[in-house]
Write a structure and sequence with these properties.
Length: about 160
């Protein structure tokens, strides 16, 4: 038995589980109302599967929008597969939950940001507030910028 409770990893797993549950509902019933997601992920994560031209164009990280045009959403315990449209070019991506850096639903002002520290500082992942000024400001079909999302910060629960 360890001498401390690893709240950081417990929260990390809980938030990944939340994403999995939301995507499972979308897989089953589609996106309700005005809900849509911006998912930023590490394109260099060893389990990410994207087309070579996408990883060449986005070395390091990429943000995808799950909104109007997506298909073949398959959610598993480790990640999800989805087909998205890139300039009339459908591409299938596999994104493991561990590769996700941010998950935002601006329609309800909700967002999560996952960060890891240097291993010598702390090997556990931490969850922090995502500064919205660093987030992508997508436009809707009318060219309007959607409202910024309020991000849940878990720092207040840490010692």
């Amino acid at each position: 038995m360890t001498s401390t409770i690893d709240y950081g990893n417990l929260m990390h797993r809980a938030m990944r589980g939340l994403i999995q549950e939301v995507l499972t509902d979308v897989q089953k019933d589609g996106l309700p109302g005005e809900h849509h997601f911006f998912v930023t992920f590490d394109t260099m994560h060893p389990d990410v599967e994207i087309a070579d031209w996408l990883s060449d164009r986005y070395p390091g990280e990429m943000t995808v929008v799950i909104q109007h045009w997506f298909g073949n959403l398959e959610v598993t315990n480790e990640g999800f597969t989805i087909t998205l449209n890139f300039g009339d070019n459908p591409e299938t991506l596999y994104i493991p939950y561990d590769a996700i850096k941010t998950f935002v639903d601006p329609s309800v002002e909700f967002g999560l940001r996952f960060e890891t520290q240097d291993e010598e500082d702390a090997p556990d992942a931490k969850i922090e507030e995502a500064p919205m000024d660093e987030m992508v400001e997508p436009q809707d079909d009318k060219g309007d910028t959607p409202r910024e999302a309020e991000v849940v910060s878990l720092d207040q629960f840490r010692k």
